[in-house]
Design a protein that fits this description.
Blueprint lengths: L1 E5 L6 E8 L3 H16 L4 E10 L4 H13 L1 H7 E7 L2 H13 L6 E4 L2 H16 L2
Parallel strand pairs: 2-3, 3-4, 4-5
Antiparallel strand pairs: 1-2
Length: 130
């Protein structure tokens, strides 16, 4: 299951949540939404919550990474930071994968939504000079 929510405020936070088995249709919906966010040319932050997935699919991760790499100029320009929420079961593999390729913006891997949001709020406050 895939759900997408966002805040309509200065933070411009986009929250993507995947549960169960990740379907190709859901990945395509995510990609389309992510591209639409990039095309708005506005600073944004995002959270990907994969803490409730049934299995870690490397193709899913590589597909998202490929999308980001293909749009790196826009990502570098508009992505303020991101957080990935993951269960302890998959945190080791995700941390390893994230170290293999440098991020274009600050990124934080955590197991809780609260920590993810706190990280992004901190980045946002630094960017706006609070």
């Amino acid at each position: 299951m895939y759900q997408y929510k966002y805040t309509n405020d200065d933070l411009n936070l986009h929250h993507f949540e995947f549960k169960g088995l990740i379907q190709e249709k859901e990945v395509n919906e995510f990609k389309e939404t992510f591209l639409n966010i990039l095309k708005k040319n506005k600073l944004f932050y995002f959270i990907i919550d994969i803490s409730k997935i049934e299995s870690f699919d490397l193709r899913f991760f590589m597909s998202i990474r490929s999308l980001i790499d293909q749009n790196k100029i826009l990502v570098k320009s508009w992505l303020g930071g991101s957080s990935i929420i993951v269960s302890s079961r998959y945190s080791g593999i995700l941390n390893l994968l994230m170290k293999l390729k440098k991020s274009y913006a600050p990124n934080y891997i955590t197991s809780s939504i609260e920590s993810a949001i706190q990280f992004l709020l901190g980045i946002h406050q630094q960017k706006i000079g609070v």
